[in-house]
């Protein structure tokens, strides 16, 4: 009886091949898309696989019969699973940021720390800067990342070359007063900020990084920044 059972079980295994795993899906999706995939992870939803590539998440099945992008929402908790995963997967080691190439602004005791990548002509960055003036006890490292236009690069260079960079940045972003610098000093910091922004796959400004590595894109509400600063204080 046991031999018959074993033979039957073996026949079933041969008749029904094992399902694809993450490695199989990664190989197949890279071949189909013709590009590099950072990671593939099996989700808890409908047998789908999460594919993380070039800073984005999309989903597929084990046969790659469908590929779709968009937010995956948990039907029970209503949490945005995709947004949470993006935040986790896009986190960095904060210590890799070359802070010497950023404008350092200290407000209050400066104990809470975070960094921003901003374009001087970015409307959302201006809104963010106006809000951040209200923050207490923070040190803000602002990397000038002029990606919108040649004028953005010119303004970034002029701000960096100003005698008081913090004042020049705040005057322009909050008051609209043009920076005094001529842009004729060593502007390596601006070039380096753009390079590291590209390495971190920053596609838009503003982008914020906190000391626990969390990345938050966009001009987020001040209350959210305060909450995150309190969570990461002392790290």
Query: Approximately what portion of the residues adopt beta-strand conformation?
Result: 15-25%
| Sequence of strands across the biggest β-sheet | 5-7-6-8-9
| pLDDT < 50 stretches | 1-18
Terminal residue distance: 64 Å
CATH topology of the largest domain: Glutaredoxin
Question: What's the architecture of the largest domain, going by CATH?
Answer: 3-Layer(aba) Sandwich
Specify the CATH homologous superfamily of the largest domain.
Glutaredoxin
Nearest-angstrom radius of gyration? 24 Å
What percent of residues adopt helix (DSSP H or I)?
25-40%
Tell me about the largest β-sheet: 5 strands, mixed
Strand tally, please? 9
Give the mean pLDDT: 89
Identify the CATH class of the largest domain: Alpha Beta
Classification by helices and strands: alpha+beta
* General shape: elongated
Output the number of helix runs: 8
Order of helices and strands: HHEEEEHEEHEHHHEEH
Structurally, the number of domains stands at: 2
Please give a structural write-up.
The chain is α+β, with helices and mostly antiparallel strands and 235 residues long. The chain folds into two domains: 2-89, Disulphide bond isomerase, DsbC/G, N-terminal (Nuclear Transport Factor 2, Chain: A), CATH 3.10.450.70; 94-232, Glutaredoxin (3-Layer(aba) Sandwich), CATH 3.40.30.10. Helix content is 38%, strand content 18%. It has eight helices and nine strands. It has helices spanning 2-15, 22-33, 81-89, 123-132, 150-160, 165-175, 188-199, 222-232, and strands at residues 39-42, 49-53, 56-60, 67-69, 103-107, 112-118, 138-144, 207-210, 215-217. A five-stranded mixed sheet has the order 5-7-6-8-9, sandwiched between helices. A four-stranded antiparallel sheet has the order 1-2-3-4, sandwiched between helices. Residues 1-18 have low confidence and may be disordered.
